[in-house]
Design goal:
The structure is a single chain. The chain is an alpha/beta fold and about 325 residues long. The chain folds into 2 domains: about 180 residues, Isopropylmalate Dehydrogenase; about 120 residues, Isopropylmalate Dehydrogenase. The protein has 12 helices and 12 strands. A hairpin with a 5-residue loop joins strand 11 and strand 12. Helix 1 crosses helix 12 and helix 8 packs across helix 9. The two termini are about 15 Å apart.
Length: about 325
């Protein structure tokens, strides 16, 4: 039995979501994986003319029609709103359509009509102004498709996977909020997801230090001694192959990366700088711990280039391929 298609959400209509969706269809329509986008077909037709894309567009009535349409045209499932937007100019008037696109994708994934969802970038400020109550995609999806949790952000490319223990907080607050319990929870969930979603039977985790040289035995900070080592001991006692604390300045070399399957990093930039340096166009945001498969491009709405035909679709293509691989791994 063929796998169900993936559901791609509209994202911020004033951003580059539509343009990179055109590019993703162009890159994938011959070999797949198949997907459909939940959007306003009229908006995409107008956008196609604006950016000069040569992408056939066909409206579908259900996800079941997507696979047959996909080789010859971009399947668009109507979101149920007339979406009027100007490139680079987010508006609260489109917020309801943006949220509905995500809700529909989640429902299709939950009932098996979609094998997973790939979310185009949203402009959170516009959603907040319209009354959106969640900090972002991850929290919204955790509320609507909770799995075994915790719900964790992994950034992945072919050469590296990273999970930041603390995410969108200041560096000062990240250090203050770092605990052994938090490290253990994030690392345990990561090991479980590497097995279920990536098919890695015995995952190897590299646990980063926080301070230069991983603290140099306490000479450059005691977080490694007081927080990270106790977490490592607990992980090893639970049967998880956890290594470290590893000095952050050497653990991302090619030789070091060969020794682990994912890096557990203590704060946002510690993991995202090396990943984006290695593969800024192929990075994928994966949410671990959900009941459904969810990936996303590892970039924002790019309002400054929206509508100009300059957007690069590489990260969305990688996100679609990774979502299909994860769905197959879970199925296996």
């Amino acid at each position: 039995m063929a796998s169900a298609p993936l559901a791609v959400t509209m994202g911020e209509p004033a951003g580059i979501g539509g343009e990179i969706t055109f590019g993703a269809w162009d890159a994938l329509h011959k070999a797949g994986p198949a997907f459909f986008v939940i959007d306003d077909p009229a908006r995409l037709v107008d956008l196609r003319a604006r950016v000069g894309a040569r992408v056939p567009i066909e409206t579908i009535a259900s996800p079941a029609e997507a696979a047959a349409v996909f080789p010859n045209a971009l399947p668009v499932l109507p979101v149920g709103h007339d979406v009027k937007s100007k490139p680079g100019k987010p508006s609260t008037e489109t917020a309801a359509a943006v949220v509905r696109s995500i809700e529909m994708a989640v429902r299709f994934a939950q009932d098996g009509q979609a094998s997973g969802i790939v979310t185009n970038p949203i402009q959170k400020s516009a959603l907040y102004d319209a009354g959106f109550k969640y900090p972002g995609h991850t929290e919204f999806l955790a509320a609507h498709a909770p799995g075994d949790g915790p719900h964790i952000m992994m950034l992945a490319c072919p050469d590296l996977r990273v999970v930041p223990v603390t995410i969108h907080v200041s560096l000062k607050d990240a250090i203050a909020g770092l605990t052994a319990d938090l490290i253990v929870a994030q690392a345990t969930a990561t090991a479980r997801a590497l097995a279920s979603d990536f098919g890695i039977v015995k995952p190897r985790l590299a646990i980063a230090g926080l301070n230069p040289h991983a603290g140099e035995g306490g000479a450059m900070g005691r977080e490694e001694i007081d927080i990270i080592m106790p977490a490592l001991e607990r992980l090893r006692a639970a049967g998880i192959d956890a290594r470290g604390p590893m000095p952050p300045d050497t653990m991302f070399s090619a030789r070091a990366r060969a020794g682990y399957d994912a890096a557990i990093c203590m704060y946002h930039d510690q993991g995202l700088i090396p990943l984006k340096t290695l593969d800024v166009d192929g990075g994928v945001n994966v949410t671990l711990g959900l009941s459904i498969v969810r990936t996303s491009p590892d970039h924002g709405t790019a309002l400054d280039i929206a509508g100009k035909g300059e957007a690069h679709c590489g990260s969305l293509v990688a996100a679609i391929r990774m979502a299909a691989d994860i769905a197959q791994s879970r199925k296996n």
